Amino acid sequence: MKKLILLCFAIGLVSCGASKTVRVSKKVIKGDWVLNSITYNQAGTYNATLLNDAPKACFEGSTWQFVPNNNTGVYSINNASCASGERHFVFTIQEVDAETGLYDFLLKPTNEKHKSETNQGFRLKLAALSDTNMQWQQTISVSGSPLTINMNFIKQ
């Protein structure tokens, strides 16, 4: 009976951990990134506010730091014509399809460093991740039609 309980506990412990693919992704995402470009899947001019914070032009060139061991990070808007400064967040990578390697990425702003999360979160698709590049995608509705925003990062 004791061995059965121990076996059940061990199986439960292993099943609660993150998958190997997610653990590897967290190692890759760790560090400093630059959001070098934001594109759309359709031609046109859009006035989108990203992460309920700032327009596209403010985010391009922003620097991002990810600390996966505690799922926190900070991004800094560096554009002089925007409200610049650091913004703290917590993040989670959730596995969607281990075969394709595509994930949902949940980013939640925090009030300040090590403070509580806001009630707002943003689900983004982690569409590509390598040692040097990362792409997030967010699909929004514009006049009833889907529009995909591509956020392209380069690792520093």
Automatic annotation (TrEMBL):
Pfam families: Lipocalin_4. It comes from the Bacteria. InterPro entries: Lipocalin-like. Residues 29-96 form the Lipocalin-like domain. This is Lipocalin family protein. It comes from Mariniflexile jejuense.
